[in-house]
Write a structure and sequence with these properties.
The complex is a heterodimer of chains A (271) and B (353).
Chain A: H1 2-37, E1 38-40, E2 50-51, H2 54-60, H3 64-95, H4 101-113, H5 116-129, H6 136-160, H7 164-172, H8 177-206, H9 209-215, H10 222-231, H11 235-259, H12 262-266
Antiparallel strand pairs in A: 1-2
Helix pairs in contact in A: 1-11, 2-11, 3-6, 3-8, 4-6, 5-9, 6-8, 6-9, 7-8, 8-11, 10-11
Chain B: E1 4-13, E2 16-26, E3 31-35, H1 42-50, E4 57-62, E5 65-66, E6 77-80, H2 92-102, H3 107-120, H4 124-134, H5 142-154, E7 160-164, H6 172-189, E8 192-197, H7 200-206, E9 209-214, E10 217-222, H8 224-229, H9 234-239, E11 243-251, E12 256-259, E13 262-265, E14 272-279, E15 284-287, E16 296-308, E17 313-319, E18 322-328, E19 336-342, E20 347-350
Parallel strand pairs in B: 3-8, 3-9, 6-7, 7-8
Antiparallel strand pairs in B: 1-2, 1-4, 4-5, 9-10, 11-12, 11-14, 12-13, 14-20, 15-19, 16-17, 16-19, 17-18
Classes of the chains: A mainly alpha (271), B alpha+beta (353).
Amino acid sequence: MKVNLGAMGRATAKIACLALVLFIIFGPLSSLAIWSVAEKWYWPHALPQQVGLFYWGRVLGSDLMRSLQLGFFIATAVTTLTLLCTVPVGYALARFDVLFKSVIMMLFLLPQAFPQLPVFANAAVLLYKFDLGATIPGVVLIHMVGSLVYAVWIMTAVFKSIPVEMEEAAINLGASRIRTFLTIALPLAVPGIVASSLLVFLYSLDEFTGTLLIGAPFVVTLPVFMYNASMGYELQVASITALLLMIPGMVLLVLLERYLKAEYLSMFGRI
Amino acid sequence: MVKVALDNVSKSYGKVRALHETTLELEPGALTAVLGPSGCGKTTLLRSIAGFIKVDSGRICFDGRDVTALPPQERDTAMVFQNYALWPHMTVYDNVAYGLKLKRVPASEVRRRVMDALELVEMVDILGVEGIGSRKPPELSGGQQQRVALARALVVQPKVLLLDEPLSNLDAKVRQRVRVEIRRLQKRVRITTIHVTHDQEEALSIADSVVVMDKGKVIQVGSPQEIYRRPQSAFVAEFLGSSNVLTGQLCRADQTISVGGIKLSCATAAEGKATVVFRADEARLAEEEAQVEGNVVVFQGEVEETLFVGSAFRHFVKIGTELVMVDSPESSPLRRVKVVVPREKVQIYPLEG
């Protein structure tokens, strides 16, 4: 009997813990969900008086879809350009005694050392000077300020995790450095490259401060769209946007978990 | 068959001398084992020959042709790495074919040579033609990966085959077998082969000639028998097999050495400390009171411990303050004993410096 009681107690505690965790995760989200279907909701009622899909219809018929598309387009561009930069740089940092290695790493980290807002505000001034303000290329560039940092660290770690003998074996058989990179290092780095591009893609999709400062008023991505909506006290629209914004994030994070090896992260700061 | 020659080759890493004025000639078509403790420079030697390390000074020649300045791609060496370094994203076939494709060998010949190389290392029967084209290295056992790595190196018909501790990742049983196979294989292809190892038994059993290295220097070169029977320094004697090392005091005046409480006559031009070396299996135990005849050295000692080591009983005998090992087929019940060693088996090396 005693044993049974103990087991039951433990099971109860487990369920209570699970409930608490679910509440912490989904509590705030549930309010988003409720707001998204609230057509009429006056104080002091605990739940909306009138529930319906009116706002969903309005949102899906509005500019939101364009913002979503734009966000995906920008994120794709940012990811592609970031990878084009960071794959070679990461490889060089991982394999060669690059001159001023720490200086290069610092250069990438520097924008993160200062508060984001002044950095972006100054960048905005600069970009406007080159007629890049409120343009898609301008927003792509400002996203890359942040994405390059993640990507360089991860790519360096990825290439470091590939045993150098793998490449030496190819060189030993007569392969040139470039051929070795293309046939050995690059294919072996694919999981890491996928992981890093997912991170960058998500970062770009969710980036807000820089996008608002550089992109407004013409380049409106989903986070900016949501901000505008909530500024107009349209909590329903803001909630729907937030829910939509969560979908790619969750999908990509599930993918990320498959590709991002713990050893890449453990290399952070050791390069 | 290519003759490999190193002439006064040196390489330092900062203050650490990895290779120090190494001069070495390797017989064409022979299997040479480079033996030494970790950090003795043997891997640096191998990587210098492969071209992965740029030496500071000296020359490396293949058949008289100076290759010192050549990049690794142009040296025509093939290396088998300690961790095999097989490419996990390619099939066994693609791994072996890689070197041939680089050399732009026609496709039909690539196929034939890859299969020949895999046949040579006896992998065709294990994997089947199907398996060779579909299996990837991580799916193979350590011993099988080893064979594929060998095939990948042999298929390009290199001038020099370099083996970097290729057996150290295998378990003892597999290692014994692969060791025999490497020797058999090398005798068949007759490619000049350098086999780096820290395992003295492996070096002695596999090689035509053994190079013993320590602290970046070549200490002794010779056939396995020579190295084992006539070590020319205390280091080699100690490193090869279960040897006992005692410290003695040389005396030039009466041409003797005092060691373990006795005096031995010994022709010496040096004065001071010397090491006295004899092998555990060349000594025997006798009763304390026994009369011992012949040209032998006799130490008085006390048996402290007896261990069964499989092939023999190993007795740990205290002579003065030093402990020596004596192997015999039977466990000795004695406590106070005589340790008897034939005089010609006792080697004396004056300590340098």
